[in-house]
Amino acid sequence: MTNGEIWRLSATELTVLTKKGDLSAEEVVKDALVRMHQVNPELNAVVEDLGAEAMERASALDRARRDGALAGPLHGVPVTIKVNVDQKGHATTNGVVALKDVIAPDDAPVVSNLHKAGAIVIGRTNTPEFSFRADTDNPLHGRTHNPWGRHISPGGSSGGAGAAVMAGIGALGHGNDIGGSLRFPAAANGAVTVKPGLGRVPAWNPSQKAERGMLAQSMSVQGVITRTAADLHLSMPSLIEPDPRDPFHVHLPWRGNMQDGPIKVAFTKNTFGYALHPEVDKALDTARDALIDAGYLVEEIDPPDVFECGRLGYRALMGEVLTLMKGDIEAAGSQIIRDIFEVYFQEFPPIVGDDLIQALAQRSHHAREWSLFLQDYPLVLSPFLPQPFFKPDRDTEGAEGVHEVLGCAVYSYAMNFLGLPAASVPARLAELPNGPQPINIQIAARCWREDMAVDAAAAIEERVGQMAPILWEQMSN
């Protein structure tokens, strides 16, 4: 692999070469930075260039390796970090102008774990204001564009991470997900991710002044966006390492027990009255067939009520947001984000007061129903969105826009409310009037069995192929 092409390698491929000494960390990072400088001006995915810092760290890792130090599992892998997570010495802006000078006193657990594994942060990626849109734009850092074209939103809130990793800016893109913020950008950009389950990855921001609400604590998770499912198997064991600053972290191995016999998969196309686009329908069929070919037992059956569970969960979250965040949004948010939140509150009428307590109690009922179902069907293959990904700023177009962006995304935020892992993987490259566009599907799994969801994603990827090489060819034309 020559300089100028190293950036094309997956994290899995890179670590094979860096651990053998065939590539130095400096060579890897230098090539990643060249790629970033080539494509990021067009995308605005990375909003803080950490090139100098990254080269210093790469040199230090190379020296340590020459001196006999053991290489970490992510030795020399270039990564990006989302700007809503603390990285020591850098601003945790969360896409908000008023937070541009909030400098992190220490690394968040996810950053610390990546560093310990030998990864090298090359830049910090964009997010919408307060990280609470499925699109990525803000007055502080500007709009992020989708590398497939400006007619497609890059997704949010980890839109910078998704656009960066698919454009070849780093092999791993850190992100987080409270209602879909890892899976929306994966779907938008044709990337692969897994939303970890409740308590799986330790989380905390040392810069925060107050604790988050209970639903934010239980629904929000940290993860990575990748170009290939194998990179999730490589990177996630490092992310789930314990950190005492998260007292609710669940310390379990990445790999769970092997299942006896073929794994049963519940397959559903139920979109609860929302029209299922023909391209999404085809993507689901392709994913189903790939799993059957890989030896899974796929049965068409609906899981417990996703619509009721998802809507209840997001309405409860909106109740918490109304109580704990609305003042900050009004004081520090742009008019655009204030208007969007007003429509959010219409689409998902906030549950507050005594009703919120009842909704939180009802969460256990839904989680139990799913837990029982997943005893028979350890995986659930479903749509992620019922239609191809939406255009930029669709959520600024009133009730209809917010309904298309979030209202129909019940398979997304239901998994956050339930605390279940869910993978997103492209299953089709659709030829649409504006050009080719990836279509991702979702695979939910039993609690703390992210590995099973990623295995299924890998089986689908084996049939469909990776979207990145197709995208890179398009970007070069």
TrEMBL record:
Lineage top rank: taxon: Bacteria
Keywords tagged on the record: Hydrolase
InterPro entries cross-referenced by the UniProt entry: Amidase_dom, AS_sf
Record field: transmembrane: none
Domain Amidase: 27-452
Record GO terms (molecular function): hydrolase activity
Pfam families (UniProt xref): Amidase (PF01425)
Keyword Isomerase among UniProt keywords: no
Protein name: Amidase
Annotated source species: Ruegeria conchae
